[in-house]
Amino acid sequence: MLTHRRQRARTVRGVQYAVLAVAVAALALGANWGEIRRAFFDLDVARAQFPEIIGTALVNTVVYTLLGFGFGLALGLVLALMRLSSVPPYRWLAIAYIEFFRGVPALLVFIALGFGVPIAFQVVIDQYVTVMLALGLVGAAYMAETIRAGIQAVPKGQVEAARSLGMSQGRALRSIVVPQAFRIVLPPLTNELILLTKDSSLVYLLGLSLGQYELAKFGRDALNENRSLTPILVAGLCYLIITLPLGHLVRRLEARTAKAR
């Protein structure tokens, strides 16, 4: 019986490999490779994107992401502590904020801060401040729940031991609970950094100057100039330069956390 199941499994795998081989062969024979190369892999168009796509667009993407992540992390920590507070109004405010910004598209937040607030209050907001607020407000809602889960994962016995040694509740939280919680939630926070990197592409809505271009805006303008998808592909590869190392870092951190546990 066991031998029959193994033979059947090998047959199924063989059929799947055969289907894949036929599909690849059909694609290779039927595709117009000259047109594909012109549309996606035009080396002349790709070379024209450098060095500006690295020196300006990639750098700005990193700067926008770090600004949003830094603000979001600080606000997320405050919201997490409010969410765990014994004071009901604090909990209600934190829950309302988290549910609102997790339910509203980041696109609307960018529009509201980039156009709505300046029009409504007749103020001029610096572009970098707008990006920091828009990315941070959305990211904080997700990071708050992540940090809250990390705080709750710290064994309560450690807090009780700290209190028995004479530590106040606030000092025990700062010295014992929060540092351990951040070690626990470091992998998901790194995932949030990856998501903010991709959300930074929404900055193009704000009407950037040439020196403020990020990768998506840079690729879109180059697409309009060259009538080729090559700039979009180059911009995508630049995003991968940022996100792939972060993804590898997440896996390493998750493995280390699992080993520690």
Major sheet description: none
* Overall pLDDT level: 84
User: N-to-C SSE series?
Assistant: HHHHHHHHHHH
Radius of gyration: 25 Å
- Shape field: flat
Briefly, what is this?
This protein is mainly alpha-helical and 261 residues long.
Q: Secondary structure elements and their pairing?
A:
Blueprint: H1 2-30, H2 33-40, H3 43-48, H4 52-83, H5 88-103, H6 106-121, H7 127-153, H8 156-164, H9 169-199, H10 215-226, H11 230-260
Helix pairs in contact: 4-5, 4-7, 4-9, 4-10, 4-11, 5-7, 6-7, 7-9, 8-9, 9-11, 10-11
Task: Give a written overview of the molecule.
The structure is a single chain. The protein has 261 residues and is an all-alpha fold. It has 11 helices and no strands. The two termini are 40 Å apart.
What descriptors fit this protein?
261 residues
